[in-house]
Amino acid sequence: MARFYSVAPVQLFWYLTGLFKVALAVDHVPMLLWSTESSLWNSETTLHEGHIITKQELPTVLQPIFTQSSKNLVLFLQDMLSIDDFTYYSESYGTEKPFHNVQEILKSSSSSLILSAVDSEAARYLLDYLLGVVDWKLTNIDNLNDASEMEVNTSKSNLFVIKLQPGNRLNDISMAKIFAANDKVIGRLTMSLQERGIHFSVIYTAMRSSRIPRITDVALKSRRQLMTIEVPDSILYPPLSVTNGTETCILMYASNFSITANKSVHVDLTNSTFVSRNVDFSSSACSAANTTLSLKYSNPVDNINSLEIRFLMTKRFFAGSARNWFTLETVEIVQDNRKVARFNVSVISAPAEYSFHCQLVGTSNLYGANLIPSNNEAKSWDIFISEFQIQGFSVENNRFSYASDCTSFFSPGIWMALVTSIILLWILTYGIHMIMQLTTNSRFDDPKGLALSVPQTE
């Protein structure tokens, strides 16, 4: 198989790692394409500097894939990906080398194209577009270990969709290992197809960005920091809404919703909850004083047949503030109808007419709001929720109300700055006071005259 080597892919890959540090928007994902066919893309058009590929422009970019003689396409889908991932995880983590195989493939591919920014809406539309353009033989590969052994019928147009392993972005080392493992899958499959002499093209991208945009307008209307958090038109997905028949009674949003069982089994529920909506919330209940958000998942991962997560909220009147407040009392996890793992919740409360927002919520003490295990079953679970927002009462127009944030007015950093400033100001004041108390002698000794005698009475 003839190859045409070029230095352009190498330059493009390193260009990708430094591009868009100050991007115009964060609601976009990178897209890497390569093929065994030569000259699919003109090297002059591979750099899209400062430009985000839209849903309308993406078909034009992908058109060369469908004009080649062999129509075998492999689509690698990461759960979340951004430009910063290539920069942040470009270096080795011990024996792990994230994106090493991808870099080498870009060097040796006959044709390659790197799109630094593709609108997330276009990325979500990608699979539907591909299925509508060519009469593909679609193959979804769930077992990544068998990906390199897949059967290819070269007499037909084949589309292989491989969903790569998601990761926990709270831990950099864990995320680097996930990227390295996915990189190995890409490398093994690419080498397997090349060794069998099969011509093919590859698209490597993600459904959504790993950075979630939010809009906040500060309004000081409570004992905590209040802000309006609206869902802009370009947000990746709308919040999960539960109705009591006619009206919305519960809203929930999170940019990352993940749990880990026994420190080893990681379950990312973000896509199932907010994107594909492969979740059953029919058991949720709403009333004037109590609200329960029940999320049921079927076979979220191997070895877990069913999983239910409940958020139990109450509303009470407090005479001190002369108003109703809602509180998230407990979070419960039920796996395969076993005993309930129950977590007590700290900090999560707000006026009943507001929603609650916190950047990080979970079982770690480092988060803004903590989920504290209250029984032995809960100790085997770890929960991580980022950009968490929930409202269980007084929902109007299917939108979040003002949000009471878990971050108080005086954070530890502000207190440290205030204390340090006060100490330095006290030192300065004391020094100025001492300088002002300095006086000169009223009499001086004359060496040519008699010695100065100062009576003790003076």
From TrEMBL:
Cite the V-type proton ATPase subunit S1/VOA1 transmembrane domain residue spans from the record. 408-446
GO biological process terms, alphabetically, are: regulation of cellular pH
Q: Would you tell me the Gene Ontology cellular component terms? A: bounding membrane of organelle; cytoplasmic vesicle membrane; endomembrane system; proton-transporting V-type ATPase complex
Q: Where in the cell is it found?
A: Membrane
- Positions of the V-type proton ATPase subunit S1 luminal domain: 247-393
Q: Does the keyword Transmembrane helix apply?
A: yes
What is its membrane topology? Single-pass membrane protein
Has UniProt tagged this entry with the keyword Transmembrane?
A: yes
The entry lists its GO molecular-function terms as: ATPase activator activity
* Residues that span the membrane, as ranges: 414-433
The record ties this protein, via InterPro entries, to: Ac45_acc_su, VAS1/VOA1_TM, VAS1_LD
Which Pfam family is an annotated match for this chain, by its short name? Ac45-VOA1_TM
Q: Which UniProt keywords are listed?
A: Membrane, Transmembrane, Transmembrane helix
Q: Return the similarity comment.
A: Belongs to the vacuolar ATPase subunit S1 family.
| Annotated protein name in UniProt | V-type proton ATPase subunit S1
Q: Which organism is it from?
A: Alligator mississippiensis (American alligator)
